[in-house]
């Protein structure tokens, strides 16, 4: 997308682009095994990015970034992805059991409570719930707080509520992840199923196909697919950040230019 900007804005050049990816752990894309993750790092570096693993940002005063490994550089745009956290409302204003991260303690069947004690009539699912991961070999593991689990937990919660109202035991949440897939820019992606790894355009098409199938209703599927096809053949829809932050500025500047032109014509 950044290189596409160079065609739209002649005042920008290749030397204006510099990307740094700073990761506190020793790898990126933890959903994948080591070798696919290493391939992604090499691919990003071939495209001109600098990847800093086992590294954190020490400071970013006035756009000057200092990393824990001593690297320093200036940046016009800093994007911080800090993950998610539970709302403090649960910890500070309810007496529901929660873990050290502030997530509501949930049993495998999505009832709030522990293995020995259940909160009557209380259920939870999604990002703010610590749902035991029954498929993990690590003791005490919880399901990943992503949309994939949240949607499935929501459906099971509804079914378990119905089972409970009918006097039946609720079912535990068990989801075996079939694969991992990610896009790495327009036309590039990576897919892994056990030891099978697919890279590049085929993985990108698989990612898009899966998400089209996941979009509800056929009219929305067609709309989303049409937008993606247009972007693939004609490029991304690009707008400058200045236009987003000050949407009236361009109109006001054009109005001043038109008024000045009209004044000159009249004189």
TrEMBL record:
Gene Ontology terms for molecular function: NADH dehydrogenase activity
Keywords tagged on the record: FAD, Flavoprotein, NAD, Oxidoreductase
Domain (FAD/NAD(P)-binding) ranges: 19-154
Keyword Transport annotated: no
Region forming the signal peptide: none
Alphabetized Gene3D superfamilies for the sequence: 3.50.50.100
Pfam families registered for this protein in UniProt: Pyr_redox_2
SUPFAM superfamilies linked to this entry: FAD/NAD(P)-binding domain (SSF51905)
Keyword Cell cycle recorded: no
Transmembrane spans: none
Family listed: Belongs to the NADH dehydrogenase family.
Protein name: NADH dehydrogenase FAD-containing subunit
Organism phylogeny: Bacteria, Bacillati, Actinomycetota, Actinomycetes, Propionibacteriales
């Amino acid at each position: 997308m950044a290189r596409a900007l160079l065609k739209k804005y002649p005042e920008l050049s290749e030397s204006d682009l510099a990307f740094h990816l700073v990761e506190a752990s020793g790898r990126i894309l933890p959903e994948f095994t080591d070798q696919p993750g290493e391939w992604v790092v090499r691919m990003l570096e071939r495209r001109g990015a600098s990847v800093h693993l086992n590294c954190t940002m020490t400071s970013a005063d006035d756009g000057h970034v200092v990393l824990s490994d001593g690297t320093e550089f200036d940046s016009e745009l800093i994007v911080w992805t800090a993950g998610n956290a539970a709302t403090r409302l649960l910890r500070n204003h309810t007496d529901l059991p929660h873990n050290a991260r502030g997530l509501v303690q949930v049993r495998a069947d999505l009832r709030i409570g522990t293995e020995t004690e259940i909160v009557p009539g209380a259920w939870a699912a999604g990002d703010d719930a610590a749902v035991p991961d029954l498929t993990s070999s690590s003791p005490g593991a919880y399901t990943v707080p992503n949309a994939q689990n949240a949607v499935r937990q929501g459906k099971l919660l509804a079914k378990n509520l119905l089972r409970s109202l009918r006097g039946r035991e609720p079912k535990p949440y068990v989801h075996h992840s079939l694969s991992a897939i990610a896009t790495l820019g327009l036309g590039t992606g990576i897919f892994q199923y056990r030891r099978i790894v697919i890279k590049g355009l085929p993985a990108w098409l698989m990612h898009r196909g899966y998400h089209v199938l996941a979009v509800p209703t056929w009219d929305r599927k067609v709309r989303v697919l049409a937008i993606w096809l247009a972007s693939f053949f004609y490029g991304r829809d690009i707008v400058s950040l200045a236009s987003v932050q000050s949407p009236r500025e361009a109109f006001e500047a054009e109005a001043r230019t038109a008024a000045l032109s009209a004044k000159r014509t009249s004189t």
